[in-house]
Write a structure and sequence with these properties.
The chain is of the alpha+beta class. It contains 7 helices and 14 strands. The longest helix is centred in the last third of the chain and has 19 residues.
Length: about 300
């Protein structure tokens, strides 16, 4: 009877440590690491909402959802191969023809990524396949949407996100970047970590200086998870300069009249990301990212929510 009791006690201890293995309550720290095995899967629903706020008015709203199935295709001592398979795109507006067309071309797209042993993204493996897929799709869109004003310029800008492996890794997998944002780091409860990184310039120029602040906001020992939050701010002058230079190049084909640079309004680009992550496995339970770009008092807001099914 005593041995049986000991075995039960040990099994409960092992279960507890497997559940919160990355949460250390002695020093109130959490290390976000992916503990995954070949064949593991998780499914998520992702929603994306964009809108503009001018004073008390909200305009230009678009909202769509899609599903992603994550599969651990391979697992070694120092890396993972992970597939994100997209499906079931739905948009709630019948008016946004361009967005509906864009979403339709990415039905059943798969993205394969190589990750390090912590769960951080190393590279997109099938980027050439994604690039070819996207380029062919944009050619079809160019023909189908030829009557939309300035469609060539719009598609050209969209194609830039698929122009190279680096561009695809910076722009075409934004939900995966959001998902794995905290993987590989160790965080202490209530302590704010600050850093500076280079964010890719989608206009083709030098990358932007970006300030980052990360904080471990909550440890839920009972449920074995933690909440992490991040605030990201792009250098306003660099962003404004790059935007203005791009508009100068596009002004001829789009018949734009630009003000002089010294009176062109400054731009702000700020992003807030909050994620609840399971402590024992590194799977994300949910993640919310809100990006806000401000120009002349008008807020352009995008919110992406990743939710475990």
């Amino acid at each position: 009877m005593f041995l049986k009791t000991v075995k039960i006690f040990l099994s409960l201890i092992l279960f507890a440590f497997s559940t919160v293995g990355q949460i250390n309550m002695e020093d109130s720290t959490v290390q976000v690491v992916g503990y995954w095995y070949k064949g593991d899967t998780q499914s998520y629903t992702i929603s994306d909402e964009k809108y503009k706020v001018n004073g008390t008015d909200t305009t230009d709203r678009s909202f769509f959802t899609y599903d992603v199935d994550i599969l651990i295709k391979d697992s070694t001592a120092d890396s993972y191969t992970i597939e994100w398979k997209y499906s079931n795109y739905k948009i709630d507006s019948s008016e946004n023809v361009f967005l509906k067309k864009i979403l339709s071309i990415f039905q059943d797209l798969s993205v394969e990524m190589k990750m390090n042993e912590m769960g951080g993204i190393i590279e997109v493996i099938n980027w050439k396949q994604i690039q070819e897929y996207a380029n062919n799709a944009f050619e079809v869109l160019k023909k189908e949407l030829k009557n939309i004003p300035n469609i060539d310029a719009v598609l050209q800008q969209a194609k830039h996100s698929f122009s190279s492996q680096e561009a695809i890794q910076a722009n075409a997998i934004k939900d995966a970047i959001q998902y794995y944002n905290y993987h590989g780091g160790k965080y202490k409860l209530g302590e704010t970590l600050t850093s500076n990184l280079q964010l890719q310039n989608n206009y083709g120029g030098p990358p932007f200086d970006t300030d980052i602040q990360v904080v471990l906001d909550e440890i839920n020992l009972e449920e074995g998870n933690a909440i992490l939050k991040m605030f990201q701010s792009v250098d306003s002058k660099q962003l404004t300069d790059a935007t203005y230079d791009y508009l100068v190049k596009m002004s001829k084909s789009m018949d734009l009249e630009l003000p002089p640079r010294d009176v062109f309004p400054p731009l702000k680009n700020e992003t807030f990301t909050g994620s609840r992550i399971h402590g024992g496995t590194g799977w994300v339970i949910y993640s919310i990212e809100t990006k806000e770009v401000i120009a002349e008092g008008i807020q352009n807001i995008e919110e992406r929510i990743i939710m475990l099914k």
